[in-house]
Design a protein that fits this description.
By secondary structure, this protein is α/β, with parallel strands linked by helices. The chain is built from six helices and six strands, in the order H-E-H-H-H-H-E-E-H-E-E-E. Strands 1-4-2-3 form a four-stranded parallel sheet, with helices on both faces.
Length: 206
């Protein structure tokens, strides 16, 4: 795909792309995924996707913070170009457009489901999304199974023969609080002792 003036045009999106599903994991280290050489079976489904698809060997984080990084991903700007802790609407002053708006203009049905409230409508990310669901409170989050169920339900309502689709599902589970459901909460208990979590409400394995 080419670009014009460093911007992808809606015509190019219509011509080259049909359906896109983005899956992101908050605070997930590549070194703990099987497809990147980790020796434990922590990610069999992701490993299968990587085996059948394209696995990138180099990737870079522009800023070590979820809220800031999502702002950068959505408008493709380095943090030095803005105040690091500016809100997303502040960063978009002028003619800045975000990622889903380009897809929306190209005729895509768009939806995002987020387990982290820092990436959600309450932080200014609503523009361009037909549907956006996330945790309602700042400290709350939606479980992975809820994100998956909402994503599948939205996909089931689409007609892939007549619609073009952009879906972004963002999962919080690799991030604290480390309250994994059974049986994953003690999946490696025989290898490591169980320790109290930082908030004292649950348990995690180092």
């Amino acid at each position: 795909m080419t670009n014009t003036g460093n911007k992808i045009t809606s015509d190019e999106l219509r011509k080259h792309i049909r359906h896109i599903i983005v899956i992101s994991l908050d605070a997930c280290a590549a070194g703990h995924l099987g497809c990147y050489g980790y020796h434990r079976q922590t990610s069999p489904n992701l490993d299968e996707l990587a085996h059948d698809g394209i696995r990138l060997s180099q990737f870079f984080c522009e800023y070590p913070n979820t809220a800031v990084n999502f702002r950068l991903m959505m408008i493709s700007r380095y943090p030095e170009m803005n105040e690091h802790w500016a809100t997303f609407p502040q960063m978009r002053k002028g003619n800045s457009r975000n990622l889903p708006e380009y897809f929306k203009d190209a005729g895509f049905a768009t939806a995002s489901f987020s387990g982290n409230s820092f990436y959600g409508p309450n932080h200014g990310y609503k523009d361009g999304w037909d549907t956006f669901e996330t945790a309602k409170e700042m400290a709350g989050h939606l479980r992975a199974n809820v994100i998956t169920d909402m994503s599948i339900h939205w996909l089931d309502q689409r007609n892939p023969e007549q619609e073009r689709i952009l879906l972004w599902a963002h999962y919080l589970e690799p991030h604290n609080p480390y309250h994994a459901p059974a049986p994953w909460d003690h999946m490696f208990a025989q290898e490591y002792p169980v320790c109290p979590s930082a908030d004292g409400k649950g348990e995690f394995l180092p």
